[in-house]
């Protein structure tokens, strides 16, 4: 855990992304962008699921707390605003450190920061006389209601000369375009996530033998992920022995591993919001049968063809088509 009052990482890339988004908004006519993080979810009674921030929100903010919203104003003068939870000594005793607006503004590089309770009051002021509203509607009914409430609050002041934005742009679509090209910090994080996951798969392979259970191998993966510093699995791990591997999203992971079967593992860690994803299949006993080896080699050849077709200038589908061609011919050859 980072010491209270210090940012969790270098926030320079996040500030640069906000500045780049503001430039794109200005080029499209200006306006205001509003982006909330993910809500907390109750697991049972007073227990919550482990919190995970919204990816789009984190991409711009580096801020991991729930109950937070980023507002970006792309006018003649740009403005970057963060709304977050207020400092609360009692809740921090229960739940841990909270940044609070003042410390968060300085640490994460925002021009202004306010408590999340101020959002409803201040949002109409940011929206007034702006040409465009950049947000994403249709994903969360509660959030949609807050946005519509703010727009209606501006409309209610029409007699004073204020006007609301005349149209809404999909903010996620704009951010998707930005996220297609990774910056240096993203690439470094993704490579480290891949290294952690590759080492976890090797650990799982070494631990596999007939008589063990799928969940025991899953535990090896989870141990390796967390011990290397990742925050969580990127998705529920698939550890599927024998026929279970034919279920595309098998997650029970509770069956015994048998001699002669293959074990499929589809698992990867998440590191600083970035996912890794690795799938490997290998013999439970450590040695392929003849038929298993033939099919394994065919899949490996298809993967090599796909990798070879992954290069600048090719279409998105080129790697897939290269793999399909190898698989189709290989299956014919195998009879």
UniProtKB/TrEMBL annotation:
Catalytic activity from the UniProt record: Release of any N-terminal amino acid, including proline, that is linked to proline, even from a dipeptide or tripeptide
Record's keyword terms, sorted: Hydrolase, Manganese, Metal-binding, Metalloprotease, Protease
SUPFAM superfamilies for the chain: Creatinase/aminopeptidase (SSF55920), Creatinase/prolidase N-terminal domain (SSF53092)
Any single GO CC term annotated in Swiss-Prot or TrEMBL for this entry: cytosol
A GO MF term: manganese ion binding
GO biological process: proteolysis
One Pfam family matching this protein: AMP_N
Family that this chain belongs to: Belongs to the peptidase M24B family.
Name of the protein this chain belongs to: Xaa-Pro aminopeptidase
Protein's organism: Thauera aminoaromatica
């Amino acid at each position: 855990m980072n010491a209270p009052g210090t940012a969790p990482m270098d926030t320079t890339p996040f500030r640069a992304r906000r500045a780049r988004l503001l430039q794109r908004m200005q080029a499209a006519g200006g306006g205001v962008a509003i982006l909330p993080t993910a809500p907390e979810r109750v697991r049972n009674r007073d227990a919550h699921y482990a919190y995970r921030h919204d990816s789009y929100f984190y991409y711009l903010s580096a801020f991991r707390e729930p109950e937070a919203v980023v507002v970006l104003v792309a006018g003649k003068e740009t403005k970057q605003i963060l709304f977050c939870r207020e400092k609360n000594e009692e809740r921090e005793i229960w739940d841990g450190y909270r940044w609070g607006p003042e410390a968060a503004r300085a640490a994460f590089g925002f021009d202004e920061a306010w408590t999340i309770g101020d959002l409803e009051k201040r949002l109409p002021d940011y929206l007034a006389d702006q040409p465009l509203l950049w947000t994403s509607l249709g994903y969360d009914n509660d959030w949609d209601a807050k946005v519509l409430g703010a727009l209606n609050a501006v409309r209610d002041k029409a007699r004073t000369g204020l006007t609301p934005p005349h149209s809404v742009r999909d903010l996620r679509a704009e951010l998707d375009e930005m996220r297609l090209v990774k910056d240096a910090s993203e690439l470094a994080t993704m490579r480290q996530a891949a290294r952690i996951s590759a080492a976890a798969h090797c650990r799982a392979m070494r631990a596999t033998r007939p008589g063990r259970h799928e969940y025991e191998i899953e535990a090896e993966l989870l141990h390796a992920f967390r011990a290397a510093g990742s925050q969580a699995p990127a998705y529920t791990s698939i550890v599927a022995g024998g026929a279970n591997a034919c279920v595309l999203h098998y997650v029970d992971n509770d069956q015994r591993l048998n001699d002669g079967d293959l074990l499929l593992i589809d698992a990867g860690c998440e590191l600083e919001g970035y996912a890794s994803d690795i799938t490997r299949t290998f013999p439970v006993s450590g040695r392929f049968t003849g038929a298993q080896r033939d099919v394994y080699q065919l899949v490996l050849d298809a993967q090599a063809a796909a990798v070879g077709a992954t290069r600048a200038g090719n279409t998105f589908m080129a790697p897939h088509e290269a793999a399909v061609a190898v698989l189709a011919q290989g299956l014919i050859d195998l009879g």
